[in-house]
Amino acid sequence: MKKLVSFILALVLCLGCLALTGCGEKVDFTVGVCQLMEHDSLDKATQGFTDALKAEMEKAGKTVTVEVQVAGEADICTTIINAFTAKNVDLIMANATPALAAAATGTTTIPVLGTSVTDYADTFAGKIPANVSGTSDAVPFDEQAEMMIETLNLVAGDQVGVLYCTGESNSRIQYEAVKALFEAEGIVVEAYTFSETTELQALVTKAAGECKAIYVPSDNTVADNDTVVGTICNEKKIPVYTSYGGKICYASLAIDYYQLGYETGKMAAQVLLGNKTVADLEIMTLTPSVVYNEELCRQLGIEIPEK
Q1: What is the CATH number of domain 2-137+257-276?
Q2: Each residue of 113-132: pLDDT tens digit?
Q3: Shortest CA distance to 278 belongs to which of 136, 124, 118, 110?
């Protein structure tokens, strides 16, 4: 079934490419965007990228076509990237780690910019390809852990559950980081991992029954299903802290994904206009901001610090 879906998607993409090139309207640049899945953070990053790139091109008197394709699952990213490389787009933007990995595998010559990626070095086993750069959604994990300890009055012996999908390497990185930080304070950390979303409801129910709080890294699969997490944890009065923000968390230290995508779009413009090569661009991170969900904090009896 996956092979059939991949074939159909490839056919649709190719027909779309023919339609674009055959419409008679000449554009200066064509950019392909491969987004892993639809959810608020990734959607904002893609929108920010598109807005920035088109604004920069307009200022330069150039035109650009941005073709956005959403994979829905990691395996389909390869099909999308192959269609973009067959079309020989001028640049690929890969939104999320699986999309970036597929893009880097699919081409060594087309410039590739990533966004919503936590750790580029880990994604490529320490050697980032020469045609790859972009923006990272990494945040200070020590500050996140400290924020949870202070606001929830966590003490040695309390248990914090970390919920993430095993298919996302960025989530594993964040789990290992916060685990070490919590355990340094004597706080017990338990990983609640899943590979299929059908496991999520039972897993979250288990975690909410065993933990004082739940930490969710910037995991795309959880974010796409976080209503399930929020509903169960709210019913059991278990506070949820997310690395990416969102409605289910009582608090977060997170970045603005629209702005993250916007910075990636500005990078893309520099590359397309010949002002810089991908190799010239350092991977960029943003300064995160502290956000509290006042209504949720009241429901959970959490006091928001005055500072």
Answers
A1: 3.40.50.2300
A2: 999 999 999 899 889 999 99
A3: 110
